[in-house]
Design a protein that fits this description.
385 residues; alpha+beta; Multidrug efflux transporter AcrB transmembrane fold; 4-stranded antiparallel sheet; 74% helix
Length: 385
């Protein structure tokens, strides 16, 4: 005998079905404020150690902080080892900021130098041209100002990196061609020295078979975060436009976008609960989740609004059976990837699979209790008008 679940959409109070997705959204919003950014977005150093050490994380944090002469790091146990997260070394972070300013003046120098050269060559053919003379004067002044700015931030960078023993006495501080490689080399050498020091301290405290080291400067992390926020906003705008093109109506388009947004909010809340950091990898998982959510939401809306066979409730129920089967398959697939990445501890796959897995579980509730019910209520009101 075939077991057939009752059609929940025959209920006269479809509004009650929407309560559960809204509760999930509120919980997601609450917990998402506690989410932790990984070093790819906030800057810092993350070291993954493959170790069998059973020492407490608090003791290890204290020993590592003492060994590095810094504040105690954040340490979390992961499958197969430990994840140690350190704040960026202040000297290296300051030097990176000064190096960025140095690059800005170097770009200005290149532009002014090109203009000065062009004006000088043109004057050889048209001597006494007042416009060219003025351009040459302005460009030479710009070259001098740029050299002064490069020198200022070069010296600031060298002062910041003094603890790492950088040498620059042989550098001509009036020559951009000499300052540029010296500034780049000093920063690279200091970063490598800091990395070697961190690894030496960690491996002396925590015996390990292997490690991975990731360093992201605060400036780069801030840039990544801004770009990822822009990417997600643009993604939702494009989704709304595409869905509106299909339905030619704001309400169903907004409902579809609500479903995708709610899935993302639920995933973010779950990430905070299960201590999955928000980083470049988990953002990729969120974008995958948005695409999957739109797929099921569009399937539901099209079958309810644009198909004619049976009643709207029966079409919604049919969509639910198809959609739940699709989602269950995806949950099994990403669940397997999540389990494997936990055992082997592959951070990128662990974050992506964890985000998508949690989002898909939330998608079942959001789509079939939220979106489908809202689309049915929209269709019912539209037919009554």
């Amino acid at each position: 005998m075939k077991l057939e679940l009752p059609n929940i959409y025959h209920s006269k109070n479809l509004k009650f079905l929407v309560v559960l997705p809204l509760v999930l959204m509120l919980l997601g919003l609450y917990f998402s404020t506690q989410i932790v950014y990984d070093t790819s977005l906030r800057g810092g150093v993350t070291v993954l150690l493959q170790t069998n050490s059973t020492a407490s994380t608090s003791d290890l944090a204290s020993q590592i902080g003492t060994g590095l002469h810094s504040e105690a790091p954040s340490i979390s146990k992961s499958p197969g080892g430990l994840q140690v997260t350190l704040s960026m070394n202040q000297s290296v972070a300051d030097a990176e900021t000064y190096l960025v300013d140095f690059y800005s003046y170097k770009a200005n120098y290149t532009s002014y130098f090109f203009n000065a050269t062009s004006a000088s060559l043109a004057l050889q053919r048209d001597q006494g041209n007042s416009t060219l003379l003025l351009e040459l004067h302005k460009s030479n002044a710009g070259v001098n100002t740029s050299i002064l700015g490069m020198r200022t931030y070069f010296l600031k960078e060298m002062d910041a990196l003094a603890p790492f023993g950088v040498q620059y006495s042989a550098v001509n501080l009036s020559d951009a061609a000499q300052m540029l490689p010296a500034a780049q080399g000093a920063y690279t050498n200091a970063s490598n020295k800091y990395k070697d020091h961190v690894i030496d301290v960690l491996t002396s405290i925590v015996p390990s078979t292997s490690y991975s080291y990731e360093q992201v400067t605060p400036t780069l992390g801030k840039f990544f975060l801004q770009e990822l926020q822009t990417t997600i906003i643009v993604a939702f705008v494009l989704i709304f436009i595409a869905v509106f093109f299909v339905f030619r109506s704001v309400v169903p388009s907004a409902i579809v976008v609500f479903g995708a947004a709610n899935d993302m909010i639920v995933a973010l809340g779950a990430m905070a609960i299960f201590k999955i950091p928000l980083g470049v990898a988990s953002i990729a998982g969120l974008l995958m989740l948005i695409g999957y959510s739109i797929d099921t939401d569009m399937l539901t809306a099209i079958r309810i609004l644009k198909r004619g066979e049976g009643t709207a409730e029966s079409r919604a129920y049919g969509s639910m059976k198809t959609g739940v089967t699709m989602t269950a398959t995806a949950i099994v697939s990403f669940g397997a990837l999540f389990a494997i990445s936990m055992i082997e501890y592959v951070p990128t796959y662990y974050q992506i699979a964890g985000v998508v897995l949690m989002g898909l579980i939330g998608d079942v509730i959001t789509t079939w209790f939220g979106n489908a019910a809202l689309i049915l209520m929209y269709k019912e009101r539209k037919e009554k008008r």
